[in-house]
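#lab-general

N.A. 3:47 PM
ok so I finally got the sequence cleaned up, no stray characters, all 386 residues accounted for. can someone with queue access submit it? mine expired

B.Y. 3:52 PM
send it over

N.A. 3:53 PM
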Amino acid sequence: MINLDDGNIQTYSMNYYDKMKGKGKLLNEYDLLDRTADNLLNGKKMIDFLGDTKAKFKSLVKELLISRIDIIRKNYAEINLYMMSAEFCQSANSDMKVELHNIKRGNLREKARRHFIESRISTEYGENTWLKNHWLNSSLSKVCKSDDELKIFIQKFTEKFNKLNNFVKKIFFYDQLENVDKNLRHEILLQLDINVCPYCNRNYISKFKKNGELKSSADLDHFYNKDKFTLFSLSLYNFVPSCQICNSRLKGTKIKGIFHPYTQKIDYSDFCFKLMIEKDADLSLFFGGNVEGLKINIVHNEKYKDHIETFQLDSLYNIHKNVAVEVLLKKQTYNQSYGHLMDKIFSDLNFNETQKNLFLYGVDLEQSNFHERPLSKFVFDLMDPL
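B.Y. 4:20 PM
back already:
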Protein backbone atom coordinates (compact mmCIF):
# COMPACT_ATOMS: atom_id res chain seq x y z
CA MET A 1 0.00 0.00 0.00
CA ILE A 2 2.21 2.78 -1.31
CA ASN A 3 1.90 5.99 -3.33
CA LEU A 4 3.17 6.23 -6.89
CA ASP A 5 4.45 9.32 -8.65
CA ASP A 6 2.91 9.88 -12.09
CA GLY A 7 6.03 11.49 -13.58
CA ASN A 8 6.73 8.47 -15.79
CA ILE A 9 3.16 8.52 -17.09
CA GLN A 10 3.51 12.17 -18.04
CA THR A 11 6.85 11.54 -19.76
CA TYR A 12 5.52 8.58 -21.74
CA SER A 13 1.99 9.86 -22.37
CA MET A 14 2.48 11.56 -25.76
CA ASN A 15 4.46 8.59 -27.07
CA TYR A 16 1.57 6.34 -26.05
CA TYR A 17 -1.02 8.66 -27.56
CA ASP A 18 0.86 8.88 -30.86
CA LYS A 19 1.07 5.08 -31.06
CA MET A 20 -2.61 4.58 -30.31
CA LYS A 21 -3.79 7.11 -32.89
CA GLY A 22 -1.06 6.26 -35.40
CA LYS A 23 -2.67 3.02 -36.53
CA GLY A 24 -5.91 4.86 -37.14
CA LYS A 25 -8.02 2.41 -35.14
CA LEU A 26 -9.38 4.79 -32.52
CA LEU A 27 -10.01 7.71 -34.85
CA ASN A 28 -11.15 5.97 -38.03
CA GLU A 29 -13.68 3.73 -36.30
CA TYR A 30 -15.56 6.81 -35.19
CA ASP A 31 -16.85 7.16 -38.77
CA LEU A 32 -18.40 3.69 -38.55
CA LEU A 33 -20.49 4.39 -35.45
CA ASP A 34 -24.28 4.32 -35.66
CA ARG A 35 -25.52 7.92 -35.50
CA THR A 36 -29.12 6.84 -34.88
CA ALA A 37 -28.61 4.74 -31.73
CA ASP A 38 -30.40 6.16 -28.68
CA ASN A 39 -28.79 6.61 -25.28
CA LEU A 40 -31.57 5.42 -22.97
CA LEU A 41 -29.87 7.01 -19.97
CA ASN A 42 -30.39 10.61 -21.03
CA GLY A 43 -32.69 10.64 -24.08
CA LYS A 44 -29.92 11.75 -26.45
CA LYS A 45 -28.03 9.89 -29.15
CA MET A 46 -25.18 7.54 -28.28
CA ILE A 47 -22.85 9.41 -30.58
CA ASP A 48 -23.27 12.58 -28.49
CA PHE A 49 -21.57 10.87 -25.56
CA LEU A 50 -18.34 10.40 -27.53
CA GLY A 51 -18.61 13.71 -29.40
CA ASP A 52 -21.02 14.72 -32.13
CA THR A 53 -18.14 15.88 -34.35
CA LYS A 54 -14.82 14.30 -35.30
CA ALA A 55 -12.95 17.21 -33.70
CA LYS A 56 -14.70 16.74 -30.36
CA PHE A 57 -14.07 13.00 -30.52
CA LYS A 58 -10.34 13.48 -31.20
CA SER A 59 -10.05 15.80 -28.21
CA LEU A 60 -11.90 13.31 -26.01
CA VAL A 61 -9.73 10.39 -27.12
CA LYS A 62 -6.58 12.21 -26.09
CA GLU A 63 -8.05 12.97 -22.66
CA LEU A 64 -9.20 9.38 -22.14
CA LEU A 65 -5.81 7.95 -23.05
CA ILE A 66 -3.42 10.15 -21.10
CA SER A 67 -5.20 12.41 -18.59
CA ARG A 68 -5.92 11.77 -14.92
CA ILE A 69 -9.31 10.18 -14.48
CA ASP A 70 -10.26 12.37 -11.51
CA ILE A 71 -9.56 15.50 -13.58
CA ILE A 72 -11.58 14.17 -16.54
CA ARG A 73 -14.52 13.66 -14.18
CA LYS A 74 -14.33 17.32 -13.16
CA ASN A 75 -14.07 18.60 -16.74
CA TYR A 76 -16.63 16.37 -18.47
CA ALA A 77 -20.07 16.26 -16.83
CA GLU A 78 -21.28 13.34 -18.96
CA ILE A 79 -18.20 11.26 -18.11
CA ASN A 80 -18.74 11.98 -14.42
CA LEU A 81 -22.29 10.64 -14.83
CA TYR A 82 -20.85 7.62 -16.63
CA MET A 83 -18.46 6.91 -13.74
CA MET A 84 -21.16 7.26 -11.08
CA SER A 85 -23.40 4.96 -13.06
CA ALA A 86 -20.66 2.38 -13.59
CA GLU A 87 -19.95 2.38 -9.85
CA PHE A 88 -23.66 1.89 -9.16
CA CYS A 89 -24.05 -0.98 -11.63
CA GLN A 90 -20.97 -2.73 -10.30
CA SER A 91 -21.82 -2.73 -6.61
CA ALA A 92 -25.55 -2.00 -6.19
CA ASN A 93 -26.69 -5.58 -5.62
CA SER A 94 -23.98 -6.43 -3.10
CA ASP A 95 -24.35 -3.04 -1.35
CA MET A 96 -28.10 -3.56 -1.07
CA LYS A 97 -27.62 -6.87 0.76
CA VAL A 98 -25.24 -5.25 3.24
CA GLU A 99 -27.31 -2.13 3.89
CA LEU A 100 -30.64 -3.92 4.29
CA HIS A 101 -29.27 -6.92 6.17
CA ASN A 102 -30.34 -5.95 9.70
CA ILE A 103 -33.47 -3.97 8.81
CA LYS A 104 -36.77 -5.71 9.55
CA ARG A 105 -39.53 -6.01 6.99
CA GLY A 106 -42.21 -3.34 6.85
CA ASN A 107 -42.06 0.45 6.76
CA LEU A 108 -38.47 0.69 7.99
CA ARG A 109 -37.21 -1.59 5.24
CA GLU A 110 -39.25 0.29 2.64
CA LYS A 111 -37.69 3.59 3.81
CA ALA A 112 -34.25 1.95 3.68
CA ARG A 113 -34.78 0.95 0.05
CA ARG A 114 -35.76 4.51 -0.83
CA HIS A 115 -32.73 5.86 1.01
CA PHE A 116 -30.53 3.34 -0.79
CA ILE A 117 -31.48 4.77 -4.19
CA GLU A 118 -31.55 8.42 -3.13
CA SER A 119 -28.07 8.14 -1.60
CA ARG A 120 -26.78 6.82 -4.95
CA ILE A 121 -28.38 9.71 -6.79
CA SER A 122 -26.77 12.32 -4.54
CA THR A 123 -23.08 11.39 -4.32
CA GLU A 124 -19.79 13.01 -3.39
CA TYR A 125 -19.24 13.60 -7.12
CA GLY A 126 -22.55 15.39 -7.60
CA GLU A 127 -26.04 14.36 -8.67
CA ASN A 128 -26.36 11.29 -10.87
CA THR A 129 -29.09 12.57 -13.19
CA TRP A 130 -29.00 9.37 -15.27
CA LEU A 131 -29.99 7.34 -12.22
CA LYS A 132 -32.40 10.06 -11.14
CA ASN A 133 -34.21 9.96 -14.51
CA HIS A 134 -34.49 6.19 -14.26
CA TRP A 135 -35.86 6.61 -10.73
CA LEU A 136 -38.42 9.25 -11.75
CA ASN A 137 -39.57 7.18 -14.74
CA SER A 138 -40.18 4.18 -12.50
CA SER A 139 -43.09 3.50 -10.19
CA LEU A 140 -41.45 4.82 -7.01
CA SER A 141 -43.81 3.13 -4.57
CA LYS A 142 -43.45 -0.17 -6.41
CA VAL A 143 -39.65 -0.04 -6.49
CA CYS A 144 -39.49 0.48 -2.72
CA LYS A 145 -42.15 -2.14 -2.01
CA SER A 146 -39.88 -5.19 -1.99
CA ASP A 147 -36.30 -6.33 -2.41
CA ASP A 148 -37.23 -8.08 -5.64
CA GLU A 149 -38.65 -4.87 -7.12
CA LEU A 150 -35.50 -2.99 -6.15
CA LYS A 151 -33.41 -5.68 -7.83
CA ILE A 152 -35.49 -5.28 -10.99
CA PHE A 153 -34.92 -1.51 -10.84
CA ILE A 154 -31.16 -2.08 -10.61
CA GLN A 155 -31.25 -4.66 -13.41
CA LYS A 156 -33.11 -2.38 -15.82
CA PHE A 157 -30.76 0.52 -15.17
CA THR A 158 -27.79 -1.80 -15.68
CA GLU A 159 -29.23 -2.97 -19.00
CA LYS A 160 -29.45 0.64 -20.19
CA PHE A 161 -25.89 1.29 -19.04
CA ASN A 162 -24.60 -1.88 -20.71
CA LYS A 163 -26.04 -0.71 -24.02
CA LEU A 164 -23.98 2.47 -23.74
CA ASN A 165 -20.90 0.42 -22.88
CA ASN A 166 -21.45 -1.84 -25.89
CA PHE A 167 -21.48 1.28 -28.06
CA VAL A 168 -18.29 2.58 -26.41
CA LYS A 169 -16.65 -0.84 -26.81
CA LYS A 170 -16.71 -0.51 -30.58
CA ILE A 171 -13.74 1.83 -30.12
CA PHE A 172 -12.37 1.48 -26.59
CA PHE A 173 -11.38 -2.08 -25.75
CA TYR A 174 -8.23 -3.52 -24.20
CA ASP A 175 -7.23 -5.63 -27.23
CA GLN A 176 -6.57 -2.39 -29.08
CA LEU A 177 -3.15 -2.46 -27.39
CA GLU A 178 -2.21 -5.65 -29.21
CA ASN A 179 -3.80 -4.39 -32.42
CA VAL A 180 -1.39 -1.46 -32.31
CA ASP A 181 1.69 -3.37 -31.14
CA LYS A 182 1.92 -6.87 -29.65
CA ASN A 183 4.60 -5.61 -27.25
CA LEU A 184 2.75 -2.47 -26.18
CA ARG A 185 1.51 -3.90 -22.87
CA HIS A 186 5.08 -4.82 -21.89
CA GLU A 187 6.34 -1.45 -23.10
CA ILE A 188 3.85 0.31 -20.83
CA LEU A 189 5.05 -1.71 -17.85
CA LEU A 190 8.64 -0.90 -18.73
CA GLN A 191 7.94 2.83 -19.11
CA LEU A 192 6.00 3.09 -15.84
CA ASP A 193 9.12 1.70 -14.13
CA ILE A 194 7.45 0.24 -11.03
CA ASN A 195 9.48 -2.58 -9.49
CA VAL A 196 7.21 -3.58 -6.61
CA CYS A 197 3.46 -4.12 -6.41
CA PRO A 198 1.95 -0.89 -5.02
CA TYR A 199 -1.06 -2.66 -3.51
CA CYS A 200 0.95 -4.86 -1.11
CA ASN A 201 4.57 -3.59 -1.37
CA ARG A 202 5.64 -7.23 -0.92
CA ASN A 203 6.27 -8.72 -4.37
CA TYR A 204 8.63 -7.75 -7.16
CA ILE A 205 7.10 -7.14 -10.59
CA SER A 206 9.86 -7.68 -13.13
CA LYS A 207 10.42 -6.46 -16.68
CA PHE A 208 12.88 -8.14 -19.02
CA LYS A 209 13.68 -8.96 -22.64
CA LYS A 210 13.52 -12.43 -24.14
CA ASN A 211 14.74 -13.05 -27.69
CA GLY A 212 14.68 -9.30 -28.22
CA GLU A 213 11.05 -8.96 -27.11
CA LEU A 214 9.83 -7.14 -24.03
CA LYS A 215 8.35 -9.36 -21.33
CA SER A 216 7.13 -8.88 -17.78
CA SER A 217 6.05 -10.88 -14.76
CA ALA A 218 3.58 -8.18 -13.70
CA ASP A 219 -0.14 -7.85 -14.20
CA LEU A 220 -1.39 -4.61 -15.72
CA ASP A 221 -4.37 -4.15 -13.44
CA HIS A 222 -7.30 -2.06 -14.59
CA PHE A 223 -8.02 -0.14 -11.39
CA TYR A 224 -11.48 0.52 -12.84
CA ASN A 225 -12.35 -2.81 -14.44
CA LYS A 226 -12.70 -2.75 -18.19
CA ASP A 227 -16.11 -4.48 -18.17
CA LYS A 228 -18.10 -1.78 -16.39
CA PHE A 229 -15.69 1.14 -16.94
CA THR A 230 -15.15 0.38 -20.62
CA LEU A 231 -14.50 4.04 -21.48
CA PHE A 232 -11.22 3.89 -19.52
CA SER A 233 -10.04 0.49 -20.72
CA LEU A 234 -7.07 2.14 -22.50
CA SER A 235 -6.28 4.91 -20.03
CA LEU A 236 -2.68 5.11 -18.81
CA TYR A 237 -4.01 6.25 -15.44
CA ASN A 238 -6.17 3.14 -15.24
CA PHE A 239 -3.15 0.82 -15.64
CA VAL A 240 -1.61 -0.16 -12.30
CA PRO A 241 1.38 -2.55 -12.47
CA SER A 242 0.74 -5.14 -9.77
CA CYS A 243 1.51 -8.68 -8.68
CA GLN A 244 -0.81 -11.47 -9.77
CA ILE A 245 -1.89 -12.25 -6.20
CA CYS A 246 -3.16 -8.73 -5.56
CA ASN A 247 -4.72 -8.28 -8.99
CA SER A 248 -6.34 -11.63 -9.72
CA ARG A 249 -6.83 -13.29 -6.36
CA LEU A 250 -7.58 -10.38 -4.03
CA LYS A 251 -8.73 -7.21 -5.81
CA GLY A 252 -10.52 -8.55 -8.86
CA THR A 253 -13.05 -5.93 -9.98
CA LYS A 254 -13.40 -4.28 -6.58
CA ILE A 255 -12.73 -0.53 -6.28
CA LYS A 256 -14.73 0.52 -3.21
CA GLY A 257 -12.40 1.53 -0.41
CA ILE A 258 -9.25 0.83 -2.45
CA PHE A 259 -6.82 3.70 -2.86
CA HIS A 260 -5.66 4.53 -6.37
CA PRO A 261 -1.85 4.62 -6.03
CA TYR A 262 -1.43 7.46 -8.55
CA THR A 263 -4.27 9.80 -7.62
CA GLN A 264 -5.43 9.04 -4.04
CA LYS A 265 -2.41 9.74 -1.86
CA ILE A 266 -2.00 7.74 1.34
CA ASP A 267 -0.91 9.66 4.42
CA TYR A 268 1.91 7.40 5.60
CA SER A 269 1.62 8.76 9.14
CA ASP A 270 -1.94 7.34 9.28
CA PHE A 271 -0.85 3.87 8.20
CA CYS A 272 1.95 2.20 10.18
CA PHE A 273 3.29 -1.28 10.86
CA LYS A 274 4.11 -2.11 14.47
CA LEU A 275 5.91 -5.16 15.86
CA MET A 276 4.29 -6.23 19.14
CA ILE A 277 6.58 -8.13 21.53
CA GLU A 278 6.47 -9.00 25.20
CA LYS A 279 7.77 -6.27 27.49
CA ASP A 280 11.55 -6.45 28.09
CA ALA A 281 11.84 -9.46 25.72
CA ASP A 282 15.28 -10.14 24.24
CA LEU A 283 14.95 -9.74 20.47
CA SER A 284 17.90 -12.08 19.89
CA LEU A 285 15.80 -14.97 21.24
CA PHE A 286 13.52 -14.62 18.22
CA PHE A 287 16.31 -14.28 15.67
CA GLY A 288 16.08 -17.17 13.18
CA GLY A 289 13.89 -19.10 15.60
CA ASN A 290 10.38 -19.30 16.97
CA VAL A 291 8.51 -16.03 16.36
CA GLU A 292 5.07 -17.20 17.41
CA GLY A 293 5.17 -14.83 20.37
CA LEU A 294 5.37 -11.84 18.02
CA LYS A 295 2.65 -10.07 16.08
CA ILE A 296 2.66 -7.47 13.33
CA ASN A 297 -0.11 -4.91 13.81
CA ILE A 298 -1.22 -2.29 11.32
CA VAL A 299 -2.19 0.94 13.05
CA HIS A 300 -4.33 2.89 10.61
CA ASN A 301 -6.96 5.50 10.00
CA GLU A 302 -10.41 4.00 9.48
CA LYS A 303 -10.46 5.15 5.84
CA TYR A 304 -7.83 2.50 5.00
CA LYS A 305 -9.83 -0.39 6.49
CA ASP A 306 -11.33 -1.69 3.23
CA HIS A 307 -7.99 -1.50 1.41
CA ILE A 308 -6.22 -3.45 4.17
CA GLU A 309 -8.95 -6.09 4.28
CA THR A 310 -9.14 -6.49 0.49
CA PHE A 311 -5.42 -7.19 0.18
CA GLN A 312 -5.29 -9.15 3.48
CA LEU A 313 -2.33 -7.07 4.62
CA ASP A 314 -2.76 -7.99 8.28
CA SER A 315 -2.30 -11.71 7.71
CA LEU A 316 0.23 -11.41 4.87
CA TYR A 317 2.57 -9.13 6.79
CA ASN A 318 2.58 -11.46 9.77
CA ILE A 319 4.53 -13.82 7.53
CA HIS A 320 7.40 -11.34 7.78
CA LYS A 321 8.05 -11.49 11.54
CA ASN A 322 11.58 -12.76 10.92
CA VAL A 323 12.28 -9.74 8.73
CA ALA A 324 11.02 -7.44 11.48
CA VAL A 325 13.27 -9.07 14.07
CA GLU A 326 16.30 -8.83 11.76
CA VAL A 327 15.69 -5.14 11.08
CA LEU A 328 15.31 -4.27 14.76
CA LEU A 329 18.39 -6.27 15.71
CA LYS A 330 20.42 -4.47 13.04
CA LYS A 331 19.13 -1.15 14.30
CA GLN A 332 19.94 -2.08 17.89
CA THR A 333 23.43 -3.33 16.98
CA TYR A 334 24.18 -0.25 14.92
CA ASN A 335 23.04 2.14 17.65
CA GLN A 336 24.63 0.36 20.60
CA SER A 337 27.76 -1.37 19.36
CA TYR A 338 29.08 -0.63 15.90
CA GLY A 339 27.67 2.75 15.00
CA HIS A 340 30.94 4.70 15.10
CA LEU A 341 32.82 1.99 13.24
CA MET A 342 30.16 1.77 10.52
CA ASP A 343 29.98 5.55 10.20
CA LYS A 344 33.72 5.64 9.52
CA ILE A 345 33.39 2.91 6.88
CA PHE A 346 30.48 4.77 5.27
CA SER A 347 32.50 7.98 5.29
CA ASP A 348 35.48 6.28 3.65
CA LEU A 349 33.16 4.86 0.98
CA ASN A 350 31.45 8.25 0.48
CA PHE A 351 28.06 6.66 1.11
CA ASN A 352 25.05 8.96 1.23
CA GLU A 353 22.05 8.31 3.50
CA THR A 354 20.29 6.18 0.88
CA GLN A 355 23.36 3.99 0.40
CA LYS A 356 23.77 3.60 4.16
CA ASN A 357 20.22 2.36 4.55
CA LEU A 358 20.50 0.02 1.57
CA PHE A 359 23.66 -1.47 3.08
CA LEU A 360 22.21 -1.87 6.57
CA TYR A 361 18.57 -2.74 5.92
CA GLY A 362 18.28 -3.63 2.25
CA VAL A 363 15.73 -0.89 1.45
CA ASP A 364 15.64 2.78 0.54
CA LEU A 365 14.00 4.68 3.40
CA GLU A 366 13.03 7.62 1.18
CA GLN A 367 9.23 7.56 1.01
CA SER A 368 9.25 8.54 -2.66
CA ASN A 369 11.27 5.37 -3.44
CA PHE A 370 9.10 2.79 -1.67
CA HIS A 371 8.18 1.41 -5.10
CA GLU A 372 11.77 0.28 -5.71
CA ARG A 373 12.04 -2.63 -3.22
CA PRO A 374 9.66 -4.99 -1.39
CA LEU A 375 8.74 -4.25 2.24
CA SER A 376 10.12 -0.70 2.10
CA LYS A 377 7.21 0.86 4.01
CA PHE A 378 7.29 -2.03 6.48
CA VAL A 379 10.99 -1.53 7.27
CA PHE A 380 10.57 2.25 7.36
CA ASP A 381 7.91 1.93 10.05
CA LEU A 382 10.01 -0.42 12.19
CA MET A 383 12.75 2.14 12.66
CA ASP A 384 13.61 5.80 12.47
CA PRO A 385 15.58 6.75 9.36
CA LEU A 386 19.31 7.20 10.01
